[in-house]
């Protein structure tokens, strides 16, 4: 399979009705439809995954696993929200799984060998978000709120980009972000930076 940037340059590079039709075709076993979806979405997915994970091997594996999952579960989409958002949720979950496996393997390696290099500040922050108190608080939060918080805070997307990615109105993104910050503050027992 090829990695191509979609014509629109982002998650909504193609017509969403067309993406929904492609997903229905994939659900019926159409490999050409899967190839079109891949060509349309793999470029921006690769770029976003690379922002969250510097290991290109992991990114390639996650991208492949994402489209294998799309192939297997395309019938589950049922037209809820944008196809790009649905595919991103799959990719983000696959990345978290891959990072957990990698972290477990590194812990085993670290216990066998002394650490040679210290993780970067960004890696420590991201690990804290995924596995620390914040990650645990996000896991307890409703998926809708956690999705918005991860998109806006972790991925650094704007309200408009988040709305397009998740297939919800911008006002809903703002409301969910506000509720998510409040829940996160309550779960952590301390105020977070910024206003809610």
In words, what does this structure look like?
The protein is mainly α and 196 residues long. It contains nine helices and no strands. It folds into two domains: 1-116, RNA polymerase sigma factor, region 2, helix turn helix motif (Rna Polymerase Sigma Factor, Chain: A), CATH 1.10.1740; 118-191, Arc Repressor Mutant, subunit A (Orthogonal Bundle), CATH 1.10.10. Mean pLDDT is 78; it is low at 1-14. It is 71% helix and 0% strand.
Largest sheet: none
Helicity, as a percent range: over 70%
H and E order: HHHHHHHHH
Task: Give the class from helix and strand content and strand pairing.
Answer: mainly alpha
Mean pLDDT: 78
Kindly provide the radius of gyration, computed on alpha-carbon positions and rounded to a whole number of angstroms.
Answer: 18 Å
Overall number of structural domains? 2
General shape: globular
The CATH architecture of the largest domain can be named as Orthogonal Bundle
The stretches of 5 or more residues where confidence is low (pLDDT under 50) are 1-14
Spatial separation of the terminal alpha carbons: 43 Å
Topology:
Layout: H1 16-27, H2 31-52, H3 56-73, H4 83-112, H5 121-131, H6 133-140, H7 143-154, H8 159-166, H9 170-188
Task: Please tag this protein with its features.
single chain, 196 residues, mainly alpha, Rna Polymerase Sigma Factor, Chain: A, Arc Repressor Mutant, subunit A, 2 domains, globular, sigma factor activity
């Amino acid at each position: 399979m090829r990695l191509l940037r979609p014509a629109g340059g982002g998650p909504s590079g193609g017509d969403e009705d067309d993406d929904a039709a492609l997903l229905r075709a994939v659900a019926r076993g159409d490999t050409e439809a899967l190839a079109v979806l891949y060509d349309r979405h793999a470029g921006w997915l690769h770029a976003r995954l690379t922002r969250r994970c510097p290991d290109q091997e992991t990114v390639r594996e996650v991208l492949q696993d994402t489209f294998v999952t799309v192939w297997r579960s395309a019938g589950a989409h049922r037209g809820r929200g944008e196809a790009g958002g649905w595919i991103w949720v799959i990719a983000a979950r696959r990345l978290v799984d891959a990072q957990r496996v990698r972290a477990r393997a590194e812990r085993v390696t670290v216990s066998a060998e002394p650490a040679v290099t210290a993780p970067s500040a960004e890696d420590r922050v991201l690990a804290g978000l995924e596995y620390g108190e914040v990650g645990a608080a996000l896991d307890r939060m409703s998926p809708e709120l956690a999705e918005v918080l991860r998109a806006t805070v972790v991925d650094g997307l704007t309200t408009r980009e988040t709305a397009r990615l998740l297939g919800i109105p911008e006002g809903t993104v703002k409301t969910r972000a506000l509720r998510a910050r409040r829940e996160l503050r309550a779960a952590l027992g301390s105020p977070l930076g910024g206003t809610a």
